[in-house]
């Protein structure tokens, strides 16, 4: 759950910082969210291909990316 962990750390930093620094962290959060969304789209396309060997790994990564995106959406990013 690497991406979810990063998202949670970014959101925690966002809540702790003063106004000028929040813009920097908020930008970082938005970039990470967009990266997660792009990876999610890619992996969902790959998952459609019948790949029995890597299905479990892909499903775990897809779940992680969705959770990271949800973490950002829950705080309005």
Characterization of the model:
By secondary structure, the protein is an all-alpha fold. The chain has one domain. About 85% of the residues lie in helices and about 0% in strands. It has three helices and no strands. Helix 2 packs antiparallel against helix 3. The longest helix is centred in the middle third of the chain and has 30 residues. It is elongated. The chain starts with a helix and ends with a helix. The model has no long low-confidence stretch (mean pLDDT about 80).
Task: Record keyword descriptors for this entry.
elongated, mainly alpha, 77 residues, 3 helices
Number of strands: 0
Task: Quote the beta fraction.
Answer: under 5%
**What form results from the Cα inertia axes?**
elongated
Number of domains: 1
Total count of helical runs of at least 4 residues: 3
The largest sheet is: none
Question: What can be said about this structure in brief?
Answer:
By secondary structure, the protein is mostly helical. The protein is built from 3 helices and no strands. It has one domain.
């Amino acid at each position: 759950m690497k991406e979810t962990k990063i998202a949670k750390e970014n959101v925690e930093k966002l809540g702790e910082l003063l106004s000028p620094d929040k813009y920097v962290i908020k930008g970082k959060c938005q970039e990470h969210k967009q990266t997660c969304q792009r990876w999610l789209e890619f992996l969902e396309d790959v998952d459609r291909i019948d790949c029995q060997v890597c299905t479990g790994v892909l499903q775990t990564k897809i779940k992680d990316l969705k959770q990271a995106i949800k973490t950002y959406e829950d705080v309005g990013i």
